[in-house]
Amino acid sequence: MRTGEAVSACTSAGEEWDETLLDRVFLTRVIEPGDESGGRWVRECGVREVARRLRRGGPVLPGVSDRRWAGLRARAERADPCRDVATAAAAGVRFVAPGQTEWPGQLDDLGDARPLGLWVRGRPSLRMWALKSVALVGARACTAYGAHMAATLAADLAERGWVVVSGGAYGVDGAAHRGALGAGGATVAVLACGVDRPYPRGHAELIRRIAEQGLVAGELPPGEHPTPSRFILRNRVIAALTRGTVVVEAAHRSGSLVTARAARRLGRHTMAVPGPATSALSAGVHELLRGDAVLVTDAAEIVELVGDMGELAPERRGPVLPTDLLEPGARQVLAALPASGTAAPAGIARRAQTSQDDAIARLYELRALGYVERHDDGWKLTRQAMISARAGRDPC
């Protein structure tokens, strides 16, 4: 056996290894992410027994067809956990397994679809960061609006002490990571490939920055490449890892919607940022909003949902205008004056539904505030008040 080599390589990277942990490394090379059959085998038979059967060729695991068994055995014959451990150690990557101190317990909510383990690149503790994290996901071919919203939300969340989690892809994902990094905050990229193999290649520098300032994580062993199915299955990890998922932009057919639906199934908060009703890239978001998703427009509204009790977003209201400070009776008299020309106190009182004496008293009060002026026996709005009224602004 070459277990000793693997243990030596991992010990030099500061990790504690045993044969069970090495068997998990072996299984990450053999069983695809999100394979619930594989998760059930591990739960029912144990990691060591599943690995032993795959290495020795039998007995066949429950529910496996001859064709699938042949495929699993072919993978098992090529799997070399010692090599994976050594490659990971050389790249500064560690393996985090269920039951270890750094393992985020919320991933256990995935049941049999729980990752066999996660390969992690970066210094911080994944478990600690996941405790206060939010997923920001969206379209790869996003609009300028989508990129702006993702970056702004991420920066504001980072400044509030939240960890921003996304998939490292082009578009909204990249904007979210950059927003968090730009604010000096924490961000995690969950990849659908080996964490030592940045993808997409155009984001190699971004992923390097994330690994230096934050964390890069993934289920697949070193050197593994992404596939369409691996992207989709990766999204369940993003959903489970975080307290809630925010979709910034997404078309009707979008992997981001998969993340949102996974979050909803797991009992996490599902949020969406609205866009133009005419935009195809917001169609999927609006469909979420027609369902159970909550509309959010800024970081405060996100934190109100995912944060602790009492972390409420400020009440939304328009600006306080000078006329808002007037007594109701004075506002009623002011509204009774015509837009142009003068009016007699009797007519003003009638339109304001008050007495003439009260109307006159209010008119003098309004004159002192600069709203009206007296002309002989009539009253009119001041010139500035009329200009403001025509412009649709407060008449003051």
**CATH fold node name of the largest domain:** Rossmann fold
Number of domains: 3
For the record, give the distance between the C-alpha atoms at the N and C termini, rounded to a whole number: 87 Å
Cα-atom radius of gyration: 31 Å
Task: Write down how many β-strands occur, each being a DSSP E stretch of 2 or more residues.
Answer: 11
Average pLDDT for all residues:
90
Shape designation: elongated
Which architecture of the largest domain would the CATH scheme give at its second level? 3-Layer(aba) Sandwich
Low-pLDDT stretches: none
Number of helices: 18
Keyword list:
18 helices; Rossmann fold; Arc Repressor Mutant, subunit A; 396 residues; alpha/beta; single chain
Write up this protein.
The chain has about 400 residues and is α/β, with parallel strands linked by helices. The chain has three domains: about 5-90, no CATH class; about 105-305, Rossmann fold (3-Layer(aba) Sandwich), CATH 3.40.50; about 320-390, Winged helix-like DNA-binding domain superfamily/Winged helix DNA-binding domain (Arc Repressor Mutant, subunit A), CATH 1.10.10. Helices cover about 45% and strands about 10% of the residues. α1 packs parallel to α6 (about 80-90) and α3 (about 35-45) crosses α4. The longest helix has 16 residues, at about 145-160. The relative contact order is 0.08.
What's the layout of helices and strands?
Elements: H1 3-12, H2 19-30, H3 36-45, H4 47-56, H5 66-78, H6 81-90, E1 93-96, E2 118-121, H7 126-130, E3 133-137, H8 144-159, E4 163-166, H9 172-182, E5 187-191, H10 204-213, E6 215-218, H11 228-241, E7 244-247, H12 255-265, E8 269-272, H13 283-289, E9 294-295, H14 299-306, H15 328-336, H16 345-352, H17 356-368, E10 372-375, E11 378-381, H18 383-390
Parallel strand pairs: 3-4, 3-7, 4-5, 5-6, 7-8, 8-9
Antiparallel strand pairs: 1-2, 2-6, 10-11
